[in-house]
Amino acid sequence: MDQKWIEKMLDEKHYAGIVSRLVAFFYDLVALVVTFIVVGNVMTMWLVVQSNSPMTEDVSPMGALSGVNLTELRAYIYEHEFHLMVINWIVIVLALLLIQYIFPMFKRQTIGMKILGLYLKDEKAQDITKKQYLKRELFKLIMFPTIFQMFGKEKRPLYDRRAKVYLLK
């Protein structure tokens, strides 16, 4: 690609500002909360059906949560069937990782970025690779407070500079 075109495409006026980043972050959090609620409810029904608790002897899979005291069931599972609780949390964490990191790696956009029309480019104004996306996300986890460096001269957070990517609108 022509150097003039690269400079024009990566001009500061196209950078995603802090408001765009925070709104995208908000949408990502909403997606994670919804995922957590849905997967949590499904896994709670699974716990009721799988448990050998005396409280769930006559519970059918279709009416898994009807008539079951979930507080007592949770205490029973923690005491007698802790492996079910471990499986429950492993599935929930895997679902959240899928939504936040694995699925976005294919298009290199999180849900919030898609909603706002933000996209990532490398220093040559080309789409970033999966490796660059993963690098950026790992840097973002470690260096999230550096987002406030956007108010300075550079206009890009440290994690974007280290990953050599540009978040553009």
TrEMBL record:
It is a multi-pass membrane protein. Pfam families: RDD (PF06271). The chain crosses the membrane at residues 21-49, 82-103. This is RDD domain-containing protein. Keywords: Cell membrane, Membrane, Transmembrane, Transmembrane helix. GO terms for cellular component: plasma membrane. Its main location: membrane. Residues 15-161 form the RDD domain. The keyword Cell membrane applies. It comes from the Bacteria. It is found in: Cell membrane. InterPro entries: Pra-immunoreactive, RDD.
